[in-house]
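Subject: for your reference before the review

Hello V.,

The reviewers asked for a structural picture of the protein, and I figured it would be easier to keep everything in one thread rather than splitting it across files. Below is the amino acid sequence we used in the manuscript, unchanged from the supplementary table.
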Amino acid sequence: MPRPDRSSNQAPQNYPRPPQGAPPQRPNASMQQQGMPSAGGVREDIRALNSSILLVTQKMKFLARNEKILGRNLVVLNKKIKNLEDKFSLAPKEDSSSSDVSSKEVSDLKQKIVLLEAQLEDLRSRTATTESLKELKYVIDSINPLEFATLSQVRDLIDKRLKSKEAP
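And here is what came back from the structure prediction:
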């Protein structure tokens, strides 16, 4: 999934002026120099993850609906097969052509049922459960990526702190 364009999230251009002789810097420039992501970027990533979860949830609902439809089709076809089998077993053995047609219809319906059962099983195997999606959302919400820093960022902060203590 492509990341959202963050070019519109630029900081305003009216920065406070730096003291005389100091080079002009943008706010948060020190954070970006240290390799720390901006809070807005992480928020956008979290929003993108949340929207992805919502899309997956919608797809699951559609799959569940399709599964119900396939189940109903199976029930209808089973009833038709049962009716045909009952007709076939109760019908007198008068005409061989009518019995051939009936057995052919029964075999066609049985093939359709096997195909529908395979499709239903395939749908069940490819579908994530609602519980697993809820668990994934809970994990993302509980981690709170805004509070994390990379190992290199922590090392840089420690080095900077040690240098500031040694300087005076």
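For the response letter, the relevant points are probably these. Residues 6-15, 27-32 have pLDDT under 50 and may be disordered. Residues 40-134 form a domain with the Helix Hairpins fold (CATH 1.10.287).

Happy to draft the paragraph if you're swamped.

O.
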